[in-house]
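Dear Dr. H.,

I hope your travels went smoothly. While you were away I took the liberty of generating a structure for the chain from your last submission, since the lab meeting agenda had it listed for discussion. I wanted you to have the full record in hand beforehand rather than looking at slides cold. The sequence, exactly as received, is reproduced here:
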Amino acid sequence: MIVMAWPAWGTRAVAAGGSVLAGAVSGVVTNVVSDRPSLPWIVALAVLVVLMVGLQVLLTVLDHRGAASPPGVGGVSVGGSSSGSIRTDVAGVRRVPGRRTSSGAGSVQIGGDSRASIRTRVRDVEEG
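The corresponding predicted structure, in token form, is as follows:
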């Protein structure tokens, strides 16, 4: 049996799809409420509005998952998603004594999704 992992973008896709569906249904419900207002239809509209707000909050939280830990010298750290290209070029760096990093010189850490190219170049780096 093959078990596939839930993709990183899966939750975002489900939330975005649910938001589109709730938006379409709320248009129909708004039309019904405008034509024949009644308590059940008004409650349904209120529930849809709360659902759409909740889905938007979820999408916002998923896009800003928190800051990445500090990168090495010349590195880049993006707390959320990145849509622009990122390029690092590091030369002649020595490890700074006492500085703790989770990755080396010129590293790129992205807390969310990356939608563009990432290029790194590291030369003559001494770590020790």
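Two observations you may find useful: The chain is about 40% helix and 15% strand. The CA atoms of residues 72 and 99 lie 9 Å apart.

With kind regards,
E. W.
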